[in-house]
């Protein structure tokens, strides 16, 4: 039996969808606005676009390592960079207004580096 066909996969899918909706509702409820958005591990871009819409983004970026996902997200108008996030993030300091990473950190070895890099490229640093 394939993972996608088993009961545990269907249960996980429900929680994954609930997680996404909870996050999108948070953005809407708190009227979060962001001109430039990055989605780390953007996959095919479906959630990335929902996030961009919720915050009124004008520029939407993604990072992914998988060519198939990059092609799918790029076809949706997302500026996708192919990059191994275990090596950091290939963006300049203070570049993004909002950075998301849904279901990503648990898959990497050096979380300290990814948190550090996320902080480096997030504009909020200027507010501290």
UniProtKB/TrEMBL annotation:
Sorted UniProt keywords: Methyltransferase, Transferase
Residue ranges occupied by any Methyltransferase type domain in the UniProt entry: 38-123
EC number(s) from the headed UniProt entry: 2.1.-.-
Signal peptide: none
GO MF assignments: methyltransferase activity
GO biological process: methylation
Superkingdom field: Archaea
Enzyme class: transferase
Name recorded for this polypeptide: Class I SAM-dependent methyltransferase
